[in-house]
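Exercise 7. Predict the joint structure of the components listed below.
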Amino acid sequence: MEALGPRIAARNARVLAGVFVLCLSVLLSGCAGMFPQTATLRSGLPGGMSEKVELKQVPFFPQEEFECGPASLAMALDAAGAKVTPEELVPQVYLPARKGSLQVEMLAAARRHGTVSYVLAPRFLDLLREIEAGNPVIVLYDQGVWSPLTSWHYAVAVGYDYDSGDLVLRSGTIERQVISFPVHELMWKGSGYWAMVAVPPERIPATAQPDPWLSSVAALERTGDVRNARTAYETFLKRWPENTNAEIGLANTLHAQGELPRAERVLRDAARRAPDNPVVLNNLAQTLSDQNRDDEALPFIDRAARLGGPHAAAVEDTRRGILERLSSKKKN
Amino acid sequence: MKSSFAGVVCRLLVALMIWTPYQIAHAGMIGTEQVTQQSSQTDRSTVLNFVERSDVASQLAALGVNPATAKDRVAAMSDEEVRYLAGQVQSLPAAGTDAWVWVLVILIIAGVVWWAWKR
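Solution:
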């Protein structure tokens, strides 16, 4: 009876050891499966890419309790030239009852400081490319890794060393945290590899794709920051000239700033290349009408109305307005 | 009690929003967001988006954000982001923790794996 205790203990120890060995072997054999992106990176970086980068100039703001969102955002914004403290960002991103910050609000708050916020493609290489290009990257980690222990955390990736396989972060209360690629991937995976950058309007992130980047600029325009949105559209068109949607955006910001002749010129160029785009035609007609040239506007809006499409109702409104002004002019 | 308070906040926000021209596009101009949205629902009504914005703002207010501040926060979001948030402010990840004990556990596990990776 008295021997039973130690025997059970010994058996438990064996079971524990067995479980440990089993876990270890699963981990080792499933290596590539657990860290698919790290495994892909092992084959080497694309030619010409730096093996070691660290953005030492990114400042460090240690987080207050639960406030890694405002702290991370302040560091990224500082690098983009927007001086703002974590304290100023707390009322813009922090949710008291959730004791944290939502991803959408991180993106939205960056716009309030004149930057364009962009969600990176969920690729490890893209993260490294942005760092190489000088853009600190805000990453969302699930530090719990396993769902019952989920614990969300934002950190700012500011450097990497490919040879040693390390990523450098500003995280929480640690100014320079070095973690290995697999550890990073393990925690990053839980958020679906979510990462964002915030850049000033005269720049474009290294990994930006035209369509999602244009949506990001349009989101900045939507907040009413017409001046910075205009700069961003101009930057966009330098990189990807003749993009009709970007021309629509540029013309909209010019129009909002009251520069109607310039808006007209942009839209005329766009209409020459895309004569069947109802939005271009509608906005060109409206811009002409706003310059009191309803006669010139009429053929454009008529063509837009004939084309139909998802904006037909808006086109019809514009057309009605132009016709009304024309008829009232005739009466006078 | 709580729900009546939420009701008051909600009405207050709706009232506040009526004075905010969310659709900044000038009359007659089709906004850039209408043509750049990634989703297929480009022709959703302004009214519906307005309702969603009020909804998100009142959810933020219910989670402790000052109502006037909540309105500004929603104003910085795109239509797509508002649509995404509507109804799930409570359930989406809200990151706020500091680096803590689990990191240690992960570091140990990952250290072993790292060793395997380098081998």
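Discussion. The two ends of chain A are 114 Å apart (CA to CA).
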